[in-house]
Amino acid sequence: MPYIEALGHQLAEALKGQSADYLEAHLEQSNASHISYRGRKLESIGRSTAMGGNVRALVRSGWGFTSFNNLDELPSKIELAIKQAQLASKGKSQLAPVAPVVDKVPAGTSKNPVDIPLAEKKQLLDEYNDIIWQTAKLQTSVINYGDSYKKSIFISSLGSYIEQERADITLRLVAVATDGNQVQQANLSLGSRGDFSAIQGLHREVAEMAKRPVELLSAPQVKGGEYTVVLDPVLAGVFVHEAFGHLSESDFVYENKNLRQIMALGKEFGSPELNIVDDALVPNLRGSYKYDNEGVPASKNYLIREGKLVGRLHSRETAAKMKEKTTGNARAISYRYPPIVRMSNTYIEPGSVPFSDMIADIKEGVYARNWYGGMTSMEMFTFSASEAYMIRKGKIAEMLRPVVLTGNVFTTLKNIDAIGDDLEMNQGGGCGKGEQVPLPVSNGSPHIRIRHCLVGGR
Amino acid sequence: MEKILDQAQKVAEAAEVFLVSSEETPVQFEADHLKYIQSKQSRSAALRIIRRGKIGYGVTTNLDDIPSLVDASVETAQFGMQAEFEFPALTSYPQVDTYDPEVESVSLEQMIGHGEEMIATVKEHTPDILCEAGVTKSTVSVNIINSRGNKANYRKSIFSLGISGSLIRGTDMLFVGESEISCHPITNTRAVTDVVIKQLERAKDRASVPSQPMPVIFTPDGVMSALISPLMAAFNGKTVLEGASPIGNSLGKPVFDSKFWLWDDATIAYRPGSRPFDDEGVASRRTPLIEAGTVASFLYDLQTAALANTQSTGNGRRPGGGLPTPSPSAFIIQPGDTSFDDMLADIKEGLIIEYLMGAEQGNILGGDFSGNILLGYKVESGKIVGRVKDTMVSGNIYQVLKQIIAIGSDAKWVGGFLNSPSLYCPSLSVASRVS
Hints:
The complex is a heterodimer of chains A (458) and B (435).
Chain A: H1 2-14, E1 22-38, E2 41-59, E3 62-68, H2 74-88, E4 102-105, H3 118-134, E5 140-156, E6 161-179, E7 182-192, H4 203-217, E8 225-231, H5 233-245, H6 257-262, E9 276-279, E10 300-305, E11 308-309, H7 316-321, E12 330-331, E13 340-341, E14 345-348, H8 355-360, E15 364-376, E16 380-392, E17 395-400, E18 403-408, H9 409-412, E19 416-419, E20 424-426, E21 430-433, E22 436-440, E23 442-445, E24 448-455
Parallel strand pairs in A: 4-6, 8-15, 14-23
Antiparallel strand pairs in A: 1-2, 1-5, 2-3, 5-6, 6-7, 8-24, 9-10, 9-14, 10-11, 12-13, 15-16, 16-17, 16-18, 18-24, 19-24, 20-23, 21-22
Chain B: H1 2-11, E1 14-30, E2 33-51, E3 54-60, H2 66-77, H3 108-125, E4 130-146, E5 151-169, E6 172-182, H4 190-202, E7 214-218, H5 220-234, H6 237-241, E8 262-265, E9 286-291, E10 294-295, H7 302-307, E11 316-317, E12 325-326, E13 331-333, H8 340-346, E14 349-357, E15 368-380, E16 383-387, E17 391-396, H9 397-400, E18 406-407, E19 412-414, E20 418-420, E21 423-432
Parallel strand pairs in B: 7-14, 13-20
Antiparallel strand pairs in B: 1-2, 1-4, 2-3, 4-5, 5-6, 7-21, 8-9, 8-13, 9-10, 11-12, 14-15, 15-16, 15-17, 17-21, 18-21, 19-20
């Protein structure tokens, strides 16, 4: 990709000596391919290439941002961003200090997934689709596979020049069963940091997924109300992301006096066994990176340690305004958007309770597994399980229709009374915030038990 | 564009080039103050070919590299689906106005003024609320040409403004908000702020809810958050073709309440979802989906229609730049003649739902939904008594829409996609936290 490299050095020169408090630019070049199936047939296959960039300017605390995929006349784009920032300016710019970095970060995959022959990808998907269709009584199925390889250059007026490459793979499979006008579905979502082998050899998991919708047709719906619930590591990962992760993103907190009081460091949110971490430096996860989109080195951050709030995620601006250290969490899904504060890999640290002990003393509860999705309003949040069972007298009992669970951050975290010893990270998710969706993140947790969790139902 | 088509025709029986370019200028306010002024330019070209009977596809933002785009479509055509359709020949299109030059001439200063005005109005009502606001203008230009001689284009202007507020007292958080979008410039911010102020008034006090079935009024926003996603999936011709739509075998049959009418309409003048033709060059139309409770038709693109032995309804869209797929343009639910106040007066104990969080994240195909009332109110003896929280409402949209007590006369646009009145439903399952 010599093209954006040549432009990068021109841009670096052009950013010098401008009348702004701070300037940065991104250039990006990407390739992607996708294959999707509906039912027995391959339905869509395609390739795409994209190239573009942006310039962001800060003038007296006002931001200007311009994005483009017409890469001609870059100096005029710098000028435009500065003009916009001037119009938005009002006070004094505050950005936490960061040392200039010149670095080159390779993708870390031995093979670019986009370059793997389409025939090879198709063969694997054909195998999975065959397995799905060996399952009796299925009505239809969906498979969506996508991969991408992206090279980006970050340049700042501080003298940073960072080239980063990243590869990404996502695979989602859905099986659907019907009976009259009843429709039930099950899904499997996977992802990897560009490593194709991570989605190979999943024939058994696919077969198990494909059986579930047929069973769900005769499964009852849970009665709505409060239950003791046990979440599997996948759903507990979604839970920690929604229940607490988003509230740790400081762009929601930093200008809000009331919220800053509520979110004072040291405040107790859970039991002493509860530890929540966001760590972009875990190798090879989809939420991992070396530098964020402001050129700040990524770091491991405890959000909750021994039940108490000890940290939060920052951009350079939120860190400066809250007088805290940068964490390297300003991320953008592409050059089309300015970076905002986002999570990376968020997880609950493992405890010591084995799963069997966790359910042993539950008279009537719900065991919820696997995810459909989750949402938060900061205080209240929902997360939905695509697989659920009743727990009766300490044993996993009948299968239930998918359940939606809800909680309140100020009570639900305190109601976690058992944390398992079996941490797993889930790679199949994407996070949405504002218009920016999906951002590759990963979530994880061991099994956890929550008392008095509200479950929607009949 | 012509160059791409020429190159593609050398290697394929048929080809189509679809070009979209857009300019967008968002002005954003954060924590009551102007924060960001942005401008976004983007352009991309998609090439779809039919080669040896199969569909190949490539997309690029780099219009200077035509050979790579053609190569991508040829490579993918080896594996692509058998094309069951022909690209449309030169067609005449309905007149659908979507461009108002006045949008482009709205100045940044005016946009900033709208944002400041919205924030000032809401804060005058509730001084300790913290507001975010956005005012955006954009123009989109769409061009399509194909090897059967069709050549068409249209321009669209879009203007939107919106405000959301968070009110935090202790550990209690209230979120309110409203937005408006049009192909005309929006000059009066009052309609938006009036809604927000009404939400703040209604949510002033807190009310408790017992865990038991009760009647519910879905406001237009409540309808959007809880009931629309399943309908979008169910009326998608592709879902129907696969036998995964609960109403796929119900064409001509009464499935919904006889008061319920629904259209998909891409022809309403100056609406953001409108256009003279779809992303495959098929003429736009107004398609009845539910007539007096009876399933009237489904939505199709060219390929799905051919497979289903029917005609495209002009609903081929390219979400995320992919191949065309059936997708609605704008859902219109016919208003009824009951005023919101009359519905309210009828309720002894029940709920009003403005936003049900999480309802779209479940078995959408089956129509089951369950969500937390992020914004909603308790009704007692015909009066709104306060906001409800930590409460789940669950149901199935096919049961909910089968028996509707009354349909409101208060239809309004929710974003650019849905025009809906309030719907008054006799009974939904409610579960609330034991406090």
